[in-house]
Amino acid sequence: MSSLTLDLGQFVADLGLRQIPSEGCDIARTGIADCFGVLVAGTRDREIALIDRELGSTSGAALASLIPSGARRSIETAALINGVAAHVLDYDDVGLDGHPSAVLVPAILAQGEVSGASGAEMLTAYIAGYEVWAELLAREPTPLHRKGWHPTTVLGTIAAAASCAKLCSLDATGTSTAMAIAASMASGLVANFGTMTKSFQVGRAAQSGVIAARLSKAGLTASLDALEHPAGLLAALSHEGKAELDRAFIAAEKEWHIVRYGLNIKRYPICYATHRSIDAVLDLIERYDLSPERVERVHVSTGKTQSLMLRNSRPQTGLEAKFSMQFAMAAALVARRVGLSELTDGFVLRPEVQAIFPRVSITTTAATTESSAFAPADAVEITTSSGETLKSGPVEFAKGSHQRPLSRDDLWVKFTDCLGSEFPDVKKSRAFEKLMIFDRLNGAGDLVLQSH
């Protein structure tokens, strides 16, 4: 049987920035920049104050900064709170059947600040975590979502531990131990989508990565085959024992997953399972100048796994609406957009929005693509009040996806919108420019961003 835990630990410990393809570094910079902006926007959510009040700690030998205020918290608390903020709006990037940056960036910024790591070292740690996550995901043929697991918080915990171990300068054994400790901390359920606990799970994954690396460095032991053992993490997550436990991992022969799969940057602050359908319906609305009154029915063709995530057919709050295809279609029809201002309780409860929900029907397919748990394509069909049938055609890739990336200008528009009027333009511009050259920064402290 392969010693996967040890082999991944050796890979992470040995990884240097010069080994990584330039395209992979570009993708990582984009993910970090986008996550930073979304994180700042997320700090305005009431959940952040709740968690900081109940769990925030300013004690401990190592303190790190909350973003954007710079307020000091224990390193694990900073990772937790920043991680929740990064995911609470569901506006963070998507990849590897989850949200890589929302886990990795908060953990890396907290650990990197305490360790005194440079931007180059933190960028390397990000890519190390991404590659570990991708390698574990590739060994399970059945999408974790279908079994109730939230991949972001299960596999993200191991990835964050790898990233933090890198920043703690742990050797191969120490890194493997950190991942093995994290394997016993990995959890998160799809059943909690549409509640505050979904983003709390993400913050906990970032926090657990920090804790696992810290405990490994301090000498806590763990099984060095915890990932691939027949009673280890992959087998426990697997469906009917189908996980590839004994496939060798050879670093010298590996492909760069970050180059192959990349990141998908969100254009809408709502579950990514809706994005292709939103693109489709917005195109129909613009092409035929549709108003809600002209729409008799909306039919969406999507994937079984996507539908499983979108559990709220009649949402009553902005949080519930983030996991509703019915709301995605209604918001597009009523507002001709799906943005932060639509994901509020007030908008969701508007009578004209609620009236559209019963008009939306969904059919699903179990077919998926090689690199995603999603269906090969989504499509929308609208029946008008006059009896016309308007079809979008299949949408394979959402705007902002790895295959249809946003331009630098598009990224800037999203970034400045996330930071909002609280920050002057000069501060927003300076922060964005720093993030786009992340590996040239002296350290995480360069990114502390305070308002007026």
- Rounded to the nearest angstrom, the radius of gyration is 21 Å
Main sheet: strands, sense, barrel: 4 strands, mixed
Spatial arrangement of strands, main beta sheet: 4-3-5-6
What is the overall number of helices? 19
Query: How many individual domains?
Result: 2
Task: Summarize this entry quickly.
With 452 residues, the protein is an alpha+beta fold. It has helices at residues 4-14, 22-42, 46-55, 75-87, 100-115, 119-137, 151-167, 172-183, 196-218, 233-237, 257-261, 275-288, 304-309, 318-321, 325-335, 345-348, 351-354, 408-419, 425-435, and strands spanning 63-65, 72-74, 295-303, 360-365, 379-384, 389-391. It is 48% helix and 7% strand.
Can you offer a commentary on this structure?
With 452 residues, this protein is α+β, with helices and mostly antiparallel strands. It has 2 domains: 4-261, 2-methylcitrate dehydratase PrpD, CATH 1.10.4100; 272-391, 2-methylcitrate dehydratase PrpD (60s Ribosomal Protein L30, Chain: A, 2-Layer Sandwich). The protein is built from 19 helices and 6 strands. The protein has helices at 4-14, 22-42, 46-55, 75-87, 100-115, 119-137, 151-167, 172-183, 196-218, 233-237, 257-261, 275-288, 304-309, 318-321, 325-335, 345-348, 351-354, 408-419, 425-435; strands at 63-65, 72-74, 295-303, 360-365, 379-384, 389-391. A 4-stranded mixed beta sheet has the order 4-3-5-6. Helix 4 runs antiparallel to helix 9. It is globular, with a radius of gyration of 21 Å. The mean pLDDT is 93.
